[in-house]
Design a protein that fits this description.
The chain is an alpha+beta fold. The protein has six helices and twelve strands.
Length: 292
Amino acid sequence: MKTKQTIYDWLTANFIVNIRNEENFSLKANFRLNYAKFLVVISVFVVVVSFISITLFKWFDSFYSDEIRKDKAFRKKIILLNKTIDSLSTEVVRRDSFLLSFKKMLTGDKEALETARLKVRNEQEPTITKHESHISEAELALRAEFEGKKPKATFVSSNEASTGTKTSLSNIYFFPPISGLVSNHFDKDTKHYGVDILAKENEPIKCIASGSVIYSGWSFDTGYMLVVQHDEDLISVYKHNASLLKKVGDNVNSGEVVAIIGNSGEITTGPHLHFELWYKGHPLNPLDYIVF
């Protein structure tokens, strides 16, 4: 009677594998093999191949993922930089339009002033006539002085002082722009609308009160000049400077250094500061309000 073969017997049953030459059938090699050894070899082969494949996949995935992340981060930076550049370009255009408006206001070019406003606001504005002009008397007087014209100036009289004009300014403390010797006084008859103060070389010039710079530039007669707009339609002017430390649009505080004393311009006889004080279009005698 034939005995029943078990799985163990099936797995351990040996076979002889002979390797012969195809031409003369000579025996080259032989070895024993059973199903158990075959399954072990196949399993080891599959495990090794799987391990190598997984390792290579992780390496490639890690490498390309890092590159992709770096590329995405770089693209985000480029997009942010482009947005920042666009914002800065817009702000520069607005600033230039703002500065152009002040410049044209001082020089009297109304047409160019309106063009600059249209670029910023992108809307139509009514034409400014002589009766509708919003330019203050102080700006008109300064404009006439910048153009070399003779302004028809009005002066604060004793009557105006009694009505409160001078009294209101007298209650304000003005910081002396510089300490020195007054060499030339205020004289309305000679059209000298300020005072000349002599001081040491390279002496800093300070702003008399807080305000905003509305003009900072150079002219043939006055050299390097700075004009500051203060509250209550008050304007201070600093001429013949060696250098200017502020530009148009800058906000300045009382006592803050805005320029360096100098001798620039043709209408000058030596290093000094020519200082003017204007109130609502009226040139004032600085000595009535400031002790130099």
